Amino acid sequence: MKRKKIVAGNWKMNKNFSEALNLTSEILNLSEKTNCIKIIIPPFPFIHAINEILKSKIDFYTGAQNVHDQEQGAFTGEVSASALSSVGAKYILIGHSERRIFFNEDAQFLKNKINTALKNQLLPIYCFGESLLERESGNYLKVIEKQISEVLFHLQENEILNTVLAYEPVWAIGTGKTASPEQAQEVHQFVRSLIKNQYSIETAESISILYGGSCNAQNAKALFSMADIDGGLIGGASLKAEDFNTITNSFS
Ligand code: PGA
């Protein structure tokens, strides 16, 4: 089965409303016919307006950067999966290292979020990846195996098929230090083999695994040419329309 190619722009806590609309228009103006799905993941308040602009465009979708694990209720400041669905979000980032580190999100919480997202027709983009210390200790594959198995392996096959994975080594995020294509490929191939062992070869071959961490207009082509890298989760470079579009054109 042919896997979906995906480029997702995680805008993080950047842009105000008019800047967000301008960036969306610029991306659309520069956009050429590509063979990938493009996802814009802006701050919450902009999702609805951006989705209104993108919803008639082929292969463009919006996503959200966070969701709470409970369906609704007295959780001041949090946003529910059904609220996100209702404003047009289709994808949801879960497990980003900035949320794990700055907001202490643990495996159980992430597992609950995945369940709630799927129940509300949001497609999770589950982020995982090792710290610099874990890479240097040589134990990174063990760390990754734990991050994958404890948050995802309770899912049914049809549920994991609705999940996108994103390998984001913490040491590469926002640092300008990218994993080499070979380093990333090693992890992507390993994760695909974990999914094959837990589910089936068909499922493993169908799931898109993105790379994130200082992926940019210069290095995307080399990364995306690797057999198990199906696209990118882009932070900094997604804030420039030209760079984002170059990245979406980086599949051969
Ligand atoms: P970066 O961020 O591209 O700025 O390194 C990637 C991410 O955090 O998703």
Overall description:
An eight-stranded parallel barrel has the order 1-2-3-4-5-6-7-8, surrounded by five helices. The protein is globular, with a radius of gyration of 17 Å. It is α/β, with parallel strands linked by helices. The longest helix is centred in the C-terminal third of the chain and has 18 residues, at 181-198. The chain is built from twelve helices and eight strands. Helix content is 42%, strand content 15%. The protein has helices at 17-30, 47-54, 81-86, 97-102, 107-119, 132-136, 140-152, 157-160, 181-198, 201-206, 220-224, 241-248; strands spanning 6-10, 37-41, 60-64, 91-94, 123-128, 164-167, 209-212, 231-234. The protein has one domain (6-248): TIM Barrel. The protein starts with 5 loop residues before the first strand and ends with a helix.
Core attributes:
252 residues, TIM Barrel, binds 2-phosphoglycolic acid, alpha/beta, 42% helix, 8-stranded parallel barrel, globular
What is the CATH class designation?
Alpha Beta
Helix content: 40-55%
Bound molecules: 2-phosphoglycolic acid
Sheet with the most strands: spatial strand order? 1-2-3-4-5-6-7-8
Q: Could you give me the name of the CATH homologous superfamily?
A: Aldolase class I
Major sheet: 8 strands, parallel, barrel
The number of helical elements comes to 12
**H/E element order:** EHEHEHEHHEHHHEHHEHEH
Mean pLDDT: 97
Low-confidence stretches: none
